[in-house]
Protein: Heme-binding protein
Organism: Pseudomyxococcus hansupus
Amino acid sequence: MVRLEDARRIIAAAEKKAQELGQPMNIAVADEGGNLVAHVRMDGAWLGSVDISIKKAFTARAFDITTQDLAKSAQPGGPFYGIHASNEGKVMIFAGGVPLRKNGKVVGAVGVSGGSGDQDHGVAVAGASAF
C-alpha cells in the first residue's frame, strides 16, 4: 500500500534529484490500483507535463514495468507496438515511470516528466529508491 506519507517521501527524494539536475519536474505517485496519491509540479515545470507524469505512473503500475523498458518493446515491429493507444489513451511510453515494489510485489508507481527521457527516468528512480 502506498500511503500519502510514502508519496511525500518519494516526491521529496525525486525533487532533490531534479534540483541537482537543475530541471524542474512534475512528479506523480500512484497506488496499487494506478490511482493518483499525490502530485507536485515544481516551480517552472512544464504545465503540459502534469498529465504526462500522472500517466507515466499509471503505466508503470498497470504493466509493472518501467516506461523506459516498455517503450523499447512498443516501437514499430516490437511485441507491444500500439500499446500506447490502449487504456483510453492513459498509457505513456516515454521514460520516467517506475514501479514501486514492496516485498517483491508492485504496490504503486512514480511518474516523472519535464526533462529529457534520461532525466525523467533518473528522477523517478531516485524517488522510487526512497520507498
Residues 4-21 form the longest helix (18 residues). The domain at 4-129 is CATH 3.30.450.150 (Beta-Lactamase). The two ends are 11 Å apart (CA to CA).
